[in-house]
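assembly run, all chains below
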Amino acid sequence: MTASEADRLARVALASLGEPGDPRMASLVAQLGAPALRDHLLEAPDPDRPAGLDAAEQRMRRDVAVRLASVDPARDLSRAERLGIRFVVPGGDEWPSRLDDLMAAETLHERGGPPLGLWVKGPIRLDELERSVAFVGSRSATTYGTSVAADLAAGVAHAGYAVVSGAAFGVDQAAHRGALAAGGRTVAVLACGVDRAYPTAHKPLLDHLGRHGAVVSELAPGRSPTRVRFLTRNRLIAALTRGTVVVEAAVRSGALNSAGWASRLHRPLMGVPGPVSVAQSEGVHHLVRTGAATLVTTADEVLEMVGASGEHLVTRPRGATTDRDRLPERVRQVLEAVPRRQAAGVESVARTAGIHLIDTQATLSRLERLGFVEQVAHGWRLRATNAGVSPAQTAEIPTMGP
Amino acid sequence: MTASEADRLARVALASLGEPGDPRMASLVAQLGAPALRDHLLEAPDPDRPAGLDAAEQRMRRDVAVRLASVDPARDLSRAERLGIRFVVPGGDEWPSRLDDLMAAETLHERGGPPLGLWVKGPIRLDELERSVAFVGSRSATTYGTSVAADLAAGVAHAGYAVVSGAAFGVDQAAHRGALAAGGRTVAVLACGVDRAYPTAHKPLLDHLGRHGAVVSELAPGRSPTRVRFLTRNRLIAALTRGTVVVEAAVRSGALNSAGWASRLHRPLMGVPGPVSVAQSEGVHHLVRTGAATLVTTADEVLEMVGASGEHLVTRPRGATTDRDRLPERVRQVLEAVPRRQAAGVESVARTAGIHLIDTQATLSRLERLGFVEQVAHGWRLRATNAGVSPAQTAEIPTMGP
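ok done. output:
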């Protein structure tokens, strides 16, 4: 057995001991290596030689040893393999290095440790998730929410970024559908074994992802979802991706838990706004309001947030700019004072514009050459052709500020 | 004639010379005083003694002198008085001191100077606007936009803050109506004389404000609105108030100009989000996205932004918190592993929870005492009464974070 094979087997065995994300486990594996830790834990302490352990600790250690001795990781791995499920571990070539950020001190939360390994079903390799975006949000999303989630996911997927989400109703489902509709890559991370469909109504979706995308979990095949597992699962969604988009989330929502992980990992957290009267947007608005999340409204804005610097440049939204706006302010002021139909004398224009007569006279001549105004029998008036918008000449003019 | 009367007359005369907001005018008035500046400008330079002025400058100075000589401020003031319009000047007891911030260096924009005086019609005194909020937004607001504008303005007015806005269709109108419906105070700042109604459809609204609120302008009665005057008017809306709320604003919108003034004056700028697919919210989303504006969704959030520290404390929105959430995580983990109907043995619960047998046993006893679980013939199951939500016991529990 190779060292890496021993490592894989030990990780499967150790993962069976408790819930995912235990930072003490992660820390011990990092110090000792998985096989040595497993061997150490298999040696139940001799009750006649307590080595400083009290009775309760001794019982606990024996419990762990019994448990470890009862698992058969080689059998678990080969069973999984028959189901098309592989086990991806740190150090292996498919390991997504982003997950190592979970080892960083600030993320060493009670359930924030890195996974011992990930069970994966589907053709997308986890090391291909370098460019990926998480979509999280309400299970009971509104039509608006699912529609925006699908649109944004489609845009992100179209740009070559993988979409990563859970498998719940609402935003999760909409994000996967959007990515698939765009012919893009999409990955579901589960809070149960990847051989299980939860919710069961999403079995067809998960089957599809197992064949064309990827279904991922740190829980061994067969394990069931629990509330705690959803919370630890959320850290993986945040950690696997470059940034997390919250589409709709009520004030008390699992999506805000994912959002918290993205912040803790210093990954961009983005929120999609919605009407203020809708409860499903309240949590998102709170994140944006407090500065925890950046407001995003388009896939381009998402890509700008997660892209390498300069990789995605968002064109600032801009209305049509009129020729008028290209004029210096005092010139524009004179132009504003010229009537559209009835001509006005230069004194009248100067008075309305509040600009001295000679300046006004000179400016009117300039405006005439530019085709904005025309001189008729009784004075000056606007030339009809230049009263409108000319979006063709709209370069380089900032639209903000007075 | 008293000194203050001379000052008022000089200010009316000087205001007739050009467009509002000219910082050079403001600066000269600050240095020389309005009467001295007026006297100086009335002395047209002698063409035979050029005093360093070139021909064009001489003509300009003569033009100014002729103009000044032609105005009759005393007549203008008494005409205005007959229309119920007063002229409020710096140093007078009704002068809103916030406007003096326009003298600050950073606001000395091409059109950013303080007004020479304000023409006011209506019972609200300008020095009562110490507690006030500006509402700006699209003339072509959506139904959603006008409804939110009216709601927020009503909430703000109900809390004793005056509402300040323009007199346009859409958000301006909705803000006034909301404030009036709440029995609150509201003020319209115009880009034309306060005796004029623009748009004409808003004559009834402006008449009402002239009797029960206030209509304000730095333009003398009779002057007409121009594009430049709308832009300079916007600085007054921002400068008169503690903060500015942008309800809906397309990318290219006058409301964004007001927003720019609020930022320049270091007054809180707030944006109300909306659906991402609606053009009228794009400008607001851009302000929030770039950090220029803080997202607000309720009147309380607006008041929190503009209130003195601690004056308005917003209760964080919070969903119902269940008893479960009050439990330490490992205890909750055991609770999650207890089935709802079919009882499970302690080994099974321990295995599902991923917690050692003895810990699980102890925790189950604790959960039994707390009334969460019950022991039956074949093991443990949830007590139905505690599976639900108990919002009565929801104090002090943070809702964010895993």
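Residues 3-73 of chain B form one domain.

Chain B has three domains: 3-73, 97-306, 323-393.

not gonna interpret more than that til we talk
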